[in-house]
């Protein structure tokens, strides 16, 4: 009986599929590294943005807490409140602020500003790196005595609110107690008359004319600019 060499059944096929399997594994590893090289910068950018957003949210919260700690005992006496969402100190008692249709500060409002503004600047000094602008905003109701024309009333109230916020800013910057903070204040604090463009409304959606007549000191942070700057650096 002739001796024949016999191959182990399936040995070549197994060797063939093992080599293909190794090749596929290698390709998968390469693909994984390529994918990571593209995805990693995106992940890093997202993480940077998230960290900045959290940091600025915490910074804004700290600013609100400092404002509240500084002024909470005075707010009721001043007819004022602090809005956490907009970082605004809102003076909302129109009978204290101005005479109807006038831009001159009433004596009681002068007293309040004399006390409030230097202390306000002291609080803001702790957060200067995060502050883009401080807006003094003047708001009116939508009515104007002597006319039923809404557009005429709007523009007359616009002129009035601009005169009022200018008067507030001028008085605040003239205070001797402002001292060394005056230069920073001139660079960052603006006067903005908004007429009746942002009225206060009741739950039913009706304009609350008394509450709409107000003056707000509102802080705008520079979070957006900081995020753009960091992203440009990452790229």
In short, what is this structure?
The protein is an alpha+beta fold. It is 57% helix and 13% strand. The chain is built from 8 helices and 5 strands.
What would you say this structure looks like, in words?
The relative contact order is 0.14. With 235 residues, this protein is an alpha+beta fold. The chain has a five-stranded mixed beta sheet. The protein has one domain (49-229): OmpA-like domain (60s Ribosomal Protein L30, Chain: A, 2-Layer Sandwich), CATH 3.30.1330. The longest helix has 61 residues, at 11-71. It has helices spanning 11-71, 75-78, 94-97, 107-124, 150-173, 182-188, 209-212, 223-234; strands at 80-83, 88-91, 131-139, 189-193, 214-221.
Notable characteristics:
8 helices, single chain, 5 strands, 235 residues, 60s Ribosomal Protein L30, Chain: A, alpha+beta, 5-stranded mixed β-sheet, elongated, 13% strand
The name CATH uses for the topology is: 60s Ribosomal Protein L30, Chain: A
CATH architecture: 2-Layer Sandwich
Helix content: 55-70%
* Total count of helical runs of at least 4 residues: 8
Name the average pLDDT. Answer: 84
Oligomer: single chain
The CATH homologous superfamily is named OmpA-like domain
Class per helix and strand makeup = alpha+beta
pLDDT under 50 segments (min length 5)? Answer: none
**What is the CA-CA span between the terminal residues?**
78 Å
Write the element-wise H/E pattern from the N-terminal end onward.
HHEEHHEHHEHEH
Rg estimate, integer Å: 32 Å
How many domains? The number is 1
Strand order of the largest sheet: 1-2-5-3-4
């Amino acid at each position: 009986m002739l001796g024949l060499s016999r191959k182990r059944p399936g040995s070549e096929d197994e060797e063939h599929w093992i080599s293909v399997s190794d090749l596929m594994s290698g390709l998968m590893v390469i693909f994984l590294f390529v994918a990571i090289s593209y995805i990693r910068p995106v992940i890093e950018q997202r993480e940077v943005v998230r960290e900045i957003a959290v940091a600025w949210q915490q910074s804004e919260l700290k600013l609100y807490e400092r404002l509240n700690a500084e002024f909470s005992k005075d707010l009721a006496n001043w007819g004022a409140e602090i809005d956490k969402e907009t970082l605004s100190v809102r003076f909302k008692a129109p009978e204290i602020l101005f005479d109807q249709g006038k831009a001159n500060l009433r004596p009681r409002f002068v007293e309040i500003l004399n006390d409030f503004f230097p202390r306000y600047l002291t609080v803001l000094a702790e957060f200067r790196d995060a502050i883009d602008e401080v807006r003094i905003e003047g708001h009116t109701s939508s009515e104007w005595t002597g006319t039923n024309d809404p557009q005429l009333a709007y523009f007359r109230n616009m002129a009035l609110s601009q005169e009022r916020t200018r008067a507030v800013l001028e008085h605040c910057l003239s205070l001797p107690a402002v001292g060394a903070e005056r230069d920073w204040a001139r660079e960052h604090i603006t006067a903005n008359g908004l007429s009746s463009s942002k009225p206060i409304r009741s739950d039913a959606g009706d304009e609350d004319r008394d509450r709409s007549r107000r003056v707000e000191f509102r802080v705008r942070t520079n979070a957006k600019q900081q995020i753009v700057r960091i992203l440009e650096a990452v790229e």
